[in-house]
Design a protein that fits this description.
It contains 4 helices and 5 strands; from the N terminus they run αβαββαββα. By secondary structure, it is α/β, with parallel strands linked by helices. The chain folds into 2 domains: 47 residues; 134 residues, no CATH class. The chain has a 5-stranded mixed sheet. The longest helix is centred in the first third of the chain and has 38 residues. It starts with a helix and ends with a helix. Keywords: Membrane, Transmembrane, Transmembrane helix.
Length: 215
């Protein structure tokens, strides 16, 4: 009995089409299930075991935002009356340097210059030289989360540059300084002799005019 060649080709084509239909059907079903599963996980409809654990973000360390030199061994806190502070406004808010320096003088600090500084992120920065380490730490006690930066100045004056995050001084009754105890060394500080001072950065050009014009 002979087989019609055309009939045989039609049968083979039908079988190929049927297999292709099955394969495509399985693929479409798999994609649909994957999509449903992803949607359920995204909307928290179902719990996925490996996603069930809590992920944590390290808590920022309070205190110094940059590496600072340690106070010399046995160095005693400087009295505010022995600390001359220059205040520069890098926050963009009018007259912040003048008002902050006024607040500091009511706490006994000696008023230096005021002016504008380059825009500064964060709370602010205290800049000082090797001769002003005790002075810088005395000022640091009055401002939360301010940076300390060693520069190449030769005298004991201290510069305070105020940043966008500055919200005011620590309340006076919360500043706890033991005048009879040496300055405590902050965690992570570096011995003074191992630090490389940065160049001194003064106020921005026409700082006095800008600060006065700002209010």
């Amino acid at each position: 009995m002979s087989v019609d060649p055309d009939r045989a080709r039609q049968l083979r084509r039908r079988q190929v089409h049927e297999r292709q239909a099955v394969v495509f059907g399985v693929l479409l079903a798999s994609l649909a299930l994957a999509g449903l599963g992803a949607a359920a996980v995204y909307t928290d409809t179902v719990d996925v075991p490996f996603l069930a654990r809590d992920f944590s973000t390290p808590t920022p360390t309070a205190g110094l935002a940059v590496v600072a030199p340690c106070p010399p061994a046995g160095a005693m806190p400087a009295a505010p009356g022995a600390v001359t502070v220059n205040v520069y406004n890098g926050s963009g808010r009018p007259n912040l340097a003048g008002s902050t320096l006024g607040d500091l003088t009511t706490r006994g600090f000696v008023a230096g210059a005021t002016g504008n500084a380059a825009p500064l992120k964060g709370v602010g920065r205290i800049s000082y030289g090797a001769a002003g380490v005790a002075s810088a730490y005395a000022l640091w006690d009055h401002i939360d989360e301010v940076e300390l930066q060693l520069d190449a100045r030769a005298d004991a004056t201290v510069d305070l540059a105020l940043g966008e995050g500055f919200e005011g001084l620590v309340p006076a009754d919360e500043v706890l300084v033991d005048a009879a105890a040496p300055i405590p060394a902050p965690t992570g500080c570096v011995p003074l002799e191992q630090m490389t001072p940065v160049p001194v950065v003064g106020p921005a050009p026409a700082a006095a005019e800008g600060e006065a014009a700002a209010g």
